[in-house]
Amino acid sequence: MSIYNDYIQEIEERKGQGLHPKPIDTAELLSEVIAQIKDTANPNRPDCLNFFIYNTLPGTTPAAGVKAKFLKEIILGEEKVAEITPDFAFELLSHMKGGPSIAVLLDLALGQNEAIAKQAAEVLKTQVFLYEADTYRLKDAYTNGNLIAKAILESYAKAEFFTKLPEVPEEIKVVTFIAGEGDISTDLLSPGNQAHSRSDRELHGKCMISAQAQEEIKALQAQHPDKSVMLVAEKGTMGVGSSRMSGVNNVALWTGKQASPYVPFVNIAPIVAGTNGISPIFLTTVDVTGGIGIDLKNWVKKTDENGEVVRDENGEPVLEQKYSVATGTVLTINTKTKKLYNGDQELIDISRSFTPQKMEFIKAGGSYAIVFGKKIQTFAAKTLGIEAPVVFAPSKEVSHEGQGLTAVEKIFNRNAVGTTPGKVLHAGSDVRVTVNIVGSQDTTGLMTAQELESMAATVISPIVDGAYQSGCHTASVWDKKAQTNIPKLMKFMNDFGLITARDPKGVYHSMTDVIHKVLNDITVDDRAIIIGGDSHTRMSKGVAFGADSGTVALALATGEASMPIPESVKVTFKGEMKSYMDFRDVVHATQAQMLHQFGGENVFQGRIIEVHIGTLTADQAFTFTDWTAEMKAKASICISEDETLIESLEIAKSRIQIMIDKGMDNANKVLQGLIDKANKRIAEIRSGEQPALKPDANAKYYAEVVVDLDAIAEPMIADPDVNNKDVSKRYTHDTIRPLSFYGGDKKVDLGFIGSCMVHKGDMKILAQMLKNIEKQYGKVEFKAPLVVAPPTYNIVDELKAEGDWEVLQKYSGFEFDDTNPKSVARTEYENMLYLERPGCNLCMGNQEKAAKGDTVMATSTRLFQGRVVEDSAEKKGESLLSSTPVVVLSTILGRTPSIEEYVQAVEGINLTKFAPSHKLLVG
Q: How far apart are CA 254 and CA 210, in angstroms?
């Protein structure tokens, strides 16, 4: 019983952290638990019964297989446990959600004992997580005249697994808790530096917001036991930033309800709200858990007697409170009238939170049950040869005769499943679509694996063209946490059918490339739909959606995703870039000019940015699409010229071939299949059969933004504005300032060049600038540390072949060594150049960070509080985001450069240039 004894020791250790026993997921441990249950004289028997009944993970975990087998033996009378009657055994099986439990229930339902068969059938009628092997058994039994199988299929065809569920309450009482003022980042709900604990739900729950906030939530629950606590982003958007299922899980853990009494720490039905609504990705995650997300609109722009917006001394709109949601406010959500009330006073219409589809998610306890339920109903009706009755809300189909299609509308129409044949769909339509490419990242991957186990999935859907499991978020430091989690994750995903960054068999060299760069390379069709476990899943080919780990799991298991077709905002360009400007400045200026054009309203939020970039290859264009996460857009699409797209596909092919040459392809030859698809797409473009994706000339947009390149006169910097008097304006990514704002004297403590925002051209800019500085001053001397993390190994190899890596080595004081990776995070930096391993590095903030209170100048994506740099007791940490040349010069000077110093430093440097296409990019 050595494994059991180790478990008991772990339980004692967890007690010291204020934690309960960790749920059991291994077959070996549960087997030892069962052995002691069978021994009625065993002193551990009471504890073991508790572990078996209440502390074993369901789905397809190895432990679930052992549990289901033992419950089957109890039901058949082969084993007797006084505390677990056959009836109770059936109840436990009903909560195990598929996989081994379904196999056991089918064995019993299709067995010879009629009484047991009928009881098993009643349980099966409540289950929806059935896969092909399960449905084949049902169909075969029905074909052979089995009446039990027929009864199960008839129940499925009527969707009784859904119709017999309790209805959503008409009134839901809530008490508010202000989680913060301004945008609430998922970093507040699930900090990146605690990523290692995400799969341990109870432990990870302790990092939500703060210990004080957790105590305040508990106090509200004690004061209002009949109400749910609603987390609120006051004057901001809830859940911006990364697409963290762990953030929603934490909110549900503290404020939701337990999904099953027999499954610990898996809670559902959180209620969240924001003055400016919920971030699109976060809202999808709330749907996954059967929760509710509300757009409060409780602060509005103040207007004068003429209806004009009143502005403050900085030109910002002045807000006035429409109604209060201060912590402790009791409100009523009415799901019938779809209104929010304070007592009898109606506050706001919240019908968008209670669409027919969302009501189904709430009733079913999450969106998975609906997705699988619809599939099982369709299967049953087809097997019975009948038409399935209409149970679920029909998908909303919006079609405007004579109206053209935006790029995203074209992609969704092409990939749509189950829509009315021949009907052209426009924005607002609810669509089920096939997914071409799926990405799982390493700090959420263990949760994705758990979700796959919970929905009883064992192999990737054959519909998916390719899927990749990254190792980039844990690339910086190969510490004990990474060594514990990552090999287990890579094996699971490799066995499931994904291409993995690390080889579980140890044959090919570990590839810690940034996930978004790899997904951008393996996307070989501009009409593809991509789902990835990170908010920066924003490919510059096709349309990509960052998603929570659950949605990623669903895409992997089914090859499908469901969502409304979003509205689009068209972005075009005019004028000419100045010779000393970099494309990153165009990206930031786009956001600034958009906010100016629309009086501070972010028209990008929750919509598709259709950017008519035309002439930039996918590598360079990704700098724009990547930043659209910070623009709060739902996704983005690049409209390219035919030759530009062909060039991008050729680059993608070459990089996929490198992955094949390294030995990364699997038995299904997924990577080779992607090269074949790229060749087919190139042939279609060249022949004129199917040119590069373009919108129709008469497509309808929510808004159109024209970016004036002539107006971009100096580098543009995204500033967290950490000292803004209005707390809600801090850390928003919306404060874009020209370089001259800083007067050439703002101290810079550290520079970072890396993350998904940079490409090979940025590394070459760095090398060129260092050579120029040495030529100008006779040496290269850093007055602040410069950390450089190339996004991919492919880029490093290309830089080596072209001679640039040798230049970087010359000026560096540290270079990564894959044979001896760092095992401890760096906490102090010297004034020198660090060449770090490809991966996320400082951008993620889960392994290494700048020193507390530092001012960091970085090329990365995030400026949230505590992400790249934490506050010190004396000073707020701040992460200013800018182009590569600004970062380089800032570390050489130890301060922000003046515009004159900047122009001189980039003279003769081959910056990333962009010229608007002269072609009409419409279909």
A: 12
User: Can you tell me the distance from the alpha carbon of 712 to that of 707, in angstroms, rounded to the nearest whole number?
Assistant: 9
| Distance between CA atoms of residues 243 and 241, nearest Å | 7
Residues in the chain: 923
- At 485, phi and psi to the nearest 5? -90, -45
Question: What are the backbone dihedrals phi and psi of residue 499, each rounded to the nearest 5 degrees, phi first?
Answer: -80, 130
Complete DSSP assignment for 500-523: ESS-TTS-SPP----HHHHHHHH-
What tens digit of pLDDT does each residue of 736-785 get?
999 999 999 999 999 999 988 888 999 999 999 999 889 888 999 999 99
pLDDT tens digits for range 196-233? 888 899 999 999 999 999 999 999 999 999 999 999 99
- Give the separation between CA 830 and CA 232, rounded to whole angstroms: 42
Q: Rounded mean pLDDT of 530-551?
A: 91
**Dist. CA 426–CA 408, nearest whole Å:** 9
Residue 241: pLDDT over 80: no
For residue 845, name the pLDDT band (cuts at 50, 70, 90). confident
Lookup: tokens for 613: 């970039």
Secondary structure (3-state) at 311: strand
pLDDT of 732 over the 90 cut: no
Element holding 774 (H helix, E strand): helix 760-777
Residues 6+ apart with CB under 8 A from 275: 232, 233, 234, 235, 236, 237, 296, 297, 298, 299
Give the tens place of pLDDT for each residue, 15-31: 999 999 999 999 999 99
pLDDT at 488 over 80: yes
Instruction: Retrieve residue 860's tokens.
Output: 């990365």
pTM over 0.90: no
d(CA 309, CA 487): 56
Question: What distance in Å separates the CA atoms of residue 698 and residue 184, rounded to the nearest whole number?
Answer: 38
Interval 264-283 mean pLDDT: 93
> E strands within 296-379?
299-301, 319-321, 330-334, 339-342, 345-349
Query: How far apart are alpha carbons 351 and 752 in whole angstroms?
Result: 45
Distance CA 350, CA 354 (A): 7
- Confidence band (pLDDT; 50, 70, 90) for 243? low
Residue 843 is encoded by which pair of tokens?
């951008």
Maximum Cα interatomic distance, the chain, rounded to a whole number of Å: 91
- Please report where in the chains the tokens 């995400």 appear, as a residue: 198
Element (H or E) spanning 589, and its range?
helix 583-597
The reported pLDDT for the residue numbered 619 is 86
pLDDT of residue 913: 86
User: How far apart are the C-alpha atoms of 883 and 717, rounded to whole Å?
Assistant: 8
Q: Which two tokens stand for residue 592?
A: 């600034």
Which whole-number Å values give the CA distances from 537 to 162, 281, 283, 503, 544, in the listed order? 33, 11, 16, 23, 6
DSSP 4-50: HHHHHHHHHHHHTTT-PPPPB--HHHHHHHHHHHH-TT-TTHHHHHH
Quickly count: other Cβ atoms within 10 Å of residue 6's Cβ: 11
